[in-house]
Amino acid sequence: MTQEKFQEHVLKELSEIKNLFIKNEQDHSTLSTKISDVHSELSTKIESVRTEVESVRTEVHKQFNVFLRWSIGTAIASISIVFVLAKYVT
Predict the structure, then answer these.
(1) 1 and 9 in contact (C-beta within 8 Å)?
(2) CA dist 75 to 16, 25, 72, 87, 89, Å?
(3) What pTM, to 2 d.p., does this model score?
(4) What is the pLDDT of residues 60-71, one digit of tens each?
(5) What is the DSSP letter of 1?
């Protein structure tokens, strides 16, 4: 191989390497953009889920308080009826 052909070959290979580096940078930029988009979408969805969980938690507490009040009221009413019956039966 002559020196001129060797130089042409080296320049050709360097040009291909340069193109590969450029392609790599473009791919990296595209991937970085996609990762950023996925991250922001995931953050939005996580916040949405967090809000929904908080809403469900609040509703569960509210329903438990209603149940507890009804249970205590029913127990007090039942005990009162038993005492009234015991007082008038004896």
Answers:
(1) yes
(2) 86, 73, 5, 18, 21
(3) 0.55
(4) 999 999 999 999
(5) -
